[in-house]
Write a structure and sequence with these properties.
This protein has 600 residues and is mostly helical. The chain contains 27 helices and 2 strands.
């Protein structure tokens, strides 16, 4: 009877623990869903702000990003938003196309402007062309935003979006100048859908095969070998069809890659190769013919590819050497010289010498070697410090041992060079101590970090350090993070206003600022994506603050005086909260650091 009673008691205890865990998980899920709903409402509110902007370029750029974020919540509504954005873009293109036709503008009317020539007033044709260039940047941003969700729609827009340009010559010139971005889009697509990347990649082959096609092939093959083989077959066909106008470097890269995969396929568990041995020989023959057809004054260009030809067509390699009047020994000397140059370049790029070389040029100076050792030692100390800090709440430790680690960590941190590193390390330490339950000690550590920050920021570094301090408080004591950020934003408003005033003064062409509004779409079409998706430190901080109090986090963005900056801040909050990838990151870290509070 007694064992049964114990078993029953243990069952009740286990049930209580499971119930408590289930309740915690349910509460966390409900809180996350609550924040998400608030964020979607905030997104619609932000869309209203965007629609009130004066610049159509800005409205389109921000609208595309908002549609991308809405996709995570409501695909149908997001598609409708994209439809509106695409319609606005077509209107914008038509407007500039009409103006260019009236002035008789072509891309040959572009004006070369020296660096820092903001105060030079452009001609009417030059002005309209620069405005049109900003439109192309906006087009790129829309395509990137859509591609994140629907590659078919993105490429449909990308290829059809310039149909509003009436002048076919101008349209062709724009398309030819957009090649680099097209491959950027294709490479991003290959990460998500290799089949679609291969399909759209075939369209660009008609213009000729470049090294960018080879890089695309590598990505497609890594994701889907069968589709990689199909795309590789298309490249082979294109090279054979147009052997008179080929890029030798691209063809050489293709042969090397094909050979590498053929060798790998012969190993146990290897993937199917892109090319068979006979197909590699076909490509090599195309290369050899192209080299042999070159004029004498261009011949030495082909000398660098003899080794590639030699591997699959030794006879052709001998012919090339004969054409170049190179003996076997001269060719070996040429290869040795080429390899030496490449090695020297590698040394100069990396900054590291070769200890085995007798060349003084390749040796590291004693001072450089000492500096390297000191840096390595410092990095070891910093890694050990972070490991010790993580161990504070990552595993059970006696209070005395924890206190010892905290004291030692504070001492090492204050000896670390650079205020940025000190603030980040102190913030991490305070966060861990706070999770242990010692709020008072965490506050004391954050005061150490606060002493390193200028309370009245003026320079860019001052503002960056203020943000880092606020990030630390977000983890250790969120209640102090909000007022700190409010004060920092208030001070930043003055700086931003002064910047815009100076910008208006020097920007005679109105490239950066029109009607008192900074043209975000001017900066390559990707400024918004960069500011809202690449600031990882900002994402983590925003997520923490949003979980603590979404209303306060949202209100922080309204502290910015300028409309475009205010909307950028809202976009950062929305992306941090609504993007599934961003939202998943903090929980992964937090789960590893959960522990019981330390005894006081």
């Amino acid at each position: 009877m007694f064992p049964k009673t114990i078993a029953l008691a243990l069952l009740f205890m286990l049930s209580a623990v499971v119930s408590a865990q289930t309740t915690q998980e349910k509460n966390a899920t409900e809180q996350a869903e609550k924040v998400r709903k608030e964020a979607v409402a905030f997104l619609r509110e932000t869309l209203s702000d965007v629609n009130g902007m004066r610049s159509l370029e800005n409205r389109i750029s921000f609208g595309a990003e908002l549609a991308g974020l809405m996709w995570f919540h409501d695909e149908r509504e997001a598609r409708s938003m994209y439809t509106g954005v695409i319609g606005d873009f077509r209107d914008l293109v038509a407007k500039y196309d009409h103006q260019m036709n009236e002035l008789g503008v072509t891309l040959t009317d572009e004006e070369t402007r020296p660096f820092m020539s903001f105060m030079v007033e452009p001609t009417d044709k030059g002005r309209i062309l620069r405005k049109f260039a900003s439109v192309i940047g906006v087009r790129q941003q829309i395509a990137l935003s859509i591609a994140e969700h629907d590659p078919d729609l993105a490429f449909g827009f990308y290829y059809d979006s310039l149909s509003a340009i009436a002048n076919p010559e101008l349209r062709t010139q724009v398309e030819s100048r957009d090649t680099h971005f097209e491959f950027q889009l294709l490479n991003e697509l290959a990460e998500k859908n290799a089949a679609k990347a291969a399909q759209f990649g075939l369209r660009s082959i008609d213009k000729g095969v470049t090294s960018q096609h080879i890089e695309l092939l590598k990505k497609i093959y890594a994701k889907d070998p069968d589709k990689g083989m199909e795309f590789g077959a298309a490249l082979l066909s294109r090279f054979k069809k147009n052997s008179d106008a080929i890029e030798l470097y691209a063809l050489s890269s293709l042969i090397d890659f094909g050979g590498e995969k053929l060798e790998a396929s012969r190993k146990t568990g290897g993937k199917r190769p892109i090319y068979s041995l006979s197909e590699l020989r076909e490509l090599t023959e195309v290369m050899a013919q192209a080299i042999l057809k070159r004029k004498d004054d261009e011949g030495m260009i082909g000398a660098g590819y003899i080794s590639t030809v030699q591997k699959y067509a030794p006879g052709r390699a001998a012919q090339i050497r004969a054409k170049l009047k190179m003996s076997e020994s001269e060719y070996r000397d040429y290869q040795t010289m080429t390899n030496s140059v490449m090695a020297t370049n590698a040394v100069s790029i990396s900054g590291y010498g070769d200890y085995s070389s007798n060349s003084n040029a390749n040796r590291i100076s004693p001072s450089h070697e000492r500096a390297m050792r000191e840096r390595e030692e410092q990095e070891k100390v910093e890694r050990k410090l972070m490991e010790d800090v993580q161990s504070l709440s990552g595993k059970q430790l006696p209070k005395e041992e924890r206190d010892k680690i905290v004291i030692q960590a504070r001492k090492i941190i204050m000896q670390t060079p650079g205020r940025e590193k000190k603030i980040m390390a102190l913030s991490a330490l305070a966060s861990q101590v706070s999770k242990m339950g010692d709020k008072e000690l965490a506050a004391e550590i954050m005061r150490d970090a606060e002493r390193l920050v200028n309370p009245a920021p003026k320079t860019y570094q001052d503002f960056l350090l203020s943000w880092m301090l606020a990030s630390g408080y977000a983890e250790a004591d969120p209640d102090k993070a909000f007022p700190l950020l409010e004060d920092t934003i208030g001070r930043a408003n003055d700086t931003l206003a002064a910047f815009v005033k100076v910008g208006e003064f020097i920007d005679v062409a109105e490239e950066m600022i029109q009607d008192g509004e900074v043209q975000v779409g001017v900066f390559g079409g990707q400024m918004i994506r960069g500011l809202t998706s690449e600031l990882g430190m900002a994402d983590a901080t925003i997520q923490v603050l949003a979980k603590v109090d979404f209303t306060k986090t949202k209100n922080l963005t309204n502290r910015f005086d300028r409309t475009e900056i205010r909307i950028l801040a809202k976009m950062m909050v929305l992306r941090a909260v609504l993007s599934p990838k961003k939202a998943a990151e903090p929980d992964e870290v937090t789960d590893e650091l959960v522990t019981e509070p330390v005894d006081n």
